[in-house]
Design brief:
The structure holds two protein chains of two kinds.
Chain A lengths: L1 H12 L12 E3 L3 E3 L2 E3 L8 E3 L7 H6 L9 H12 L9 H5 L14 E3 L4 E3 L1 H12 L10 H12 L15 H11 L10 H5 L6 E2 L2 E2 L10 E3 L4 E3 L1 H10 L11 H13 L9 E3 L1
Parallel strand pairs in A: 9-11
Antiparallel strand pairs in A: 1-2, 3-4, 5-6, 7-8, 9-10
Chain B lengths: L2 H14 L1 H4 L26 H9 L31 H4 L2 H10 L40 H11 L7
Helix pairs in contact in B: 3-6, 5-6
Classes of the chains: A alpha+beta, B mainly alpha.
Amino acid sequence: MKTYALAALIGAVSVTSALADEDADLVVNGDLEIAVRAPAPDHVNLPEVLSGWLFRSDETQALQTDDFDNPGMIFVDDARETWASVEGAAGESCQSCHNDPESMAGVRPVYPKWNEEAGEVRTLAMQVNDCRETRMQAEPWGYTSGKMANMEALLASVSRGLPVNVAIDGPVADTWAMGEEIYYTRYGQLELSCANCHEDNYGNNIRADHLSQGQTNGFPTYRLKNAKLNTVQDRFKGCVRDTRAETFSPGSAEFVALELYVASRGNGLGVEGPSVRN
Amino acid sequence: MSYSKIFAAVTAGCLATAVCAETIVPTAVAYGEYGEVATSLTGAPGDQANGVMVMTNRGKGNCIACHQVTALEEFPFHGEVGPSLDGVADRWTEDDLRGIVANAKMAFPGTMMPAFYKTEGYIRPGDDYTGKAGSEPLAPILTAQEVEDVVAYLMTLNESN
C-alpha cells in the first residue's frame, strides 16, 4: 500500500504538468542557448526530437534556466572537489591526468561510444570507473551511486549546449541494434515497450504524468520527486519496473545497449545535465 | 497485499462456494471472433460500486490512467492514451466489454491496452511492481469478479448518463 500512497503523492505534485509550455526555448543564465528541439535523425521514427524539458511545468522549466535555482548544480560543485582529490594507490586525481573539468567539454555528447583497446561500448560511467581502477588504482563507484551521478553531472555541465552526437554504426552497430530491439519489446504484465509510451504517446497524459519522448540529453536529472540526481540507467529501471516486468540491472549489457540506442534518438538535442525534472 | 495472496484467497473460496465454483480461469476464457466473451466469468452479477474502485485505483485496473470518463470526474487525473469511455455502453455490448477488459488484444490486435485477465505468455514478467522476476502463471491483474464489476459499471456509461 505504501507504494500506492507514494504514487498518489507524486500525482498531486505534478498537477501542473499538463500546463507545460511546449513552445518554450531553453536559455540558461541568460546566454547559454540549449537546443530542446532538433530535426529527427534518419534512424528515428519521430517527426522531430524534443527534450523532456519541454514537457515539464512552467515552474519546473524555470528551475533549469538559472544555475542558482538549479538544485543539480550543488552536486556539480561537489564533483569538482572530487575531481581534484587524490585517491587510490597510484596517488592520482582526475585533475592530474585531465587538468580542469572544462577540458572534458565535448565528451558527454558522444557517449556511449566504442573503446578500441577494450573492444567494448562504454558508457560514461564505465569510462569513469575504468580511470578509477586502472589509472588511479582506486575502488570503482557503484554504477548509479551518488558519487557517479555527481561526476556525470560535472561532465555533462561542461558540455551543456553541445549537440548529442553518438555514433550508431561501425563497431557499435550490433550493440545499437540490440538497444533498438529492447526499445520496441513489450515487457512485463502490462506488455508495454518504451515506444508505446515515448514514441506513440509523447505529449499525452498517462494518469498525472505528462509523457515526453524519454530522451536522455538531460541526464543526470535532478528530480523534484526524490530530491536527488538520477542516473539514466536508474530511470530505465524505473520505467521497466512500471510495466510490471523484471528489470535489467544498471551496467548490464542490455542497459548499455539501450542507453546507446536511446541517446542516438536524441542526436541533435543539446546536452542539459544536470537537468531538472519532476 | 500482493495479488498472488488475493488470488489464492479467491481460488480457495472457489472450492467452498457454488457461485465461485463457476469461475472461469484466465486460460479457459472463450473469446469470440471479435474478441467478445459471452459467458460471465463468475456467474455472479457485477458490483458497479466496486467497478468504480477498480477503475480508479492505481493498484487495480487504473483505467483512468489512459481513459477519460466524465462520470468519474471526482477522481483526479484522467489520461489521454485511450479513447474516452463516455457512452461506451452504446458502442459495445456487455459481451464485447467483458472481452475488452479481460484481454483487449483479442478485439484490438496490438493495442497498448493491457490484458487484465491473463496469466502467462509475458516477456520478462515481474513480481507485481517490484522489478523482480515473477513466475508464470502470474495472478491476473484483476480477479474474475473484478472484471465483472468493471463490466457492470461500463454498462452504465450510455448517452443518458
